[in-house]
Amino acid sequence: MATLYAVKPRFQALLRPLADGAAALGVTANAVTLVALGLSLVYGATLAASDGDAAVLLGLPALLLLRMALNAIDGMLAREHGQASRLGGRLNEIGDMASDLALCLPFALFLAPAWPVVLAVILALLAEAAGVIAAAHGGERRYDGPLGKADRALLYALVALAQALIGLPPALVIAIFAAAAAASLMTIVNRLAGGLRDG
Questions:
Q1: Over the Cα atoms of the chain, what is R_g?
Q2: Which of 96, 137, 152, 170 is deepest in the core (most CB within 10 A)?
Q3: CATH code at position 48
Q4: How would you class 165 by CB atoms within 10 Å of its CB: exposed for 0-12, middle for 13-18, buried for 19 or more?
Q5: Burial of 184 by CB count in 10 Å (0-12 exposed, 13-18 middle, 19+ buried)?
Q6: Nearest in space to 32 (alpha carbons), one of 1, 61, 2, 75
Q7: CB 54 within 8 A of CB 164
Q8: Separation of alpha carbons 177 and 30, rounded Å
Q9: How many Å separate Cα 77 from the centre of its chain?
Q10: Distance, C-alpha 134 to centroid of its chain
Q11: Mind listing the pLDDT tens digit for each residue in 83-140?
């Protein structure tokens, strides 16, 4: 099932000059991964402490885009500049999951009710784990949809903008995050099934 992951090659093409420049300066893929994680943790803490402040919410889409750019750059440094490593692969996966927790879970602190947000976050993490499991059993890392990492980033960016500009009533919070949870559940099933097909 298609996700925004399909546009990754074009996104990488735009960022390739930055990746090449970073490599020329001696910047490592692992360093970029850690910077992306650090930015996510700091902004997530700010978001958690903000009680849904509009200014912080309005900055989240830019932070999410920057995080995606850094994630693409660290991947290009690893693959195209000979920096791939066992440590780097582990840092990338755990960094992505920690960043998701840091940036998504704070919504439960200022959106009511909180339970749909928490459920959606938990299922999103399980979806990422389902993608990694395939690689752990000899297959390829799975990126099946319908709700991959880039799709979640877009969803949370839109939720942040809506909350900042108009506020989200409880019924809409339930609808949005229940749909996200259902989409993550489908993603888990698709990734597990894809991994089994791969052997």
A1: 17
A2: 152
A3: 1.20.120.1760
A4: exposed
A5: buried
A6: 75
A7: yes
A8: 32
A9: 19
A10: 19
A11: 999 999 999 999 999 999 999 999 999 999 999 999 999 999 999 999 999 888 888 8
Listed in sequence order, the DSSP H helices in 51-169 are 54-80, 86-104, 107-110, 115-136, 149-165
Tell me the one-letter amino acid at 189: V
Q: Which residues contact 173 (CB under 8 A, 6 or more apart)?
A: 111, 112, 113, 116, 117
**CA–CA separation, 199 vs 196, rounded Å?**
5
Residue partners of 184: CB distance under 8 A and separation at least 6? 120, 123, 124, 126, 127, 147
Q: Which two tokens stand for residue 188?
A: 């888990």
Number of domains in the chain: 1
Q: Which domain holds residue 104?
A: 4-197
From first CA to last CA, the distance across the chain in angstroms is: 19
Position 191: which residue type?
Answer: R
Calculate the CA dihedral of residues 77, 82, 84, 87 and round it to 10 degrees.
-100
Are 51 and 110 within 8 A, CB to CB? Answer: yes
Q: What is the pTM of this model?
A: 0.92
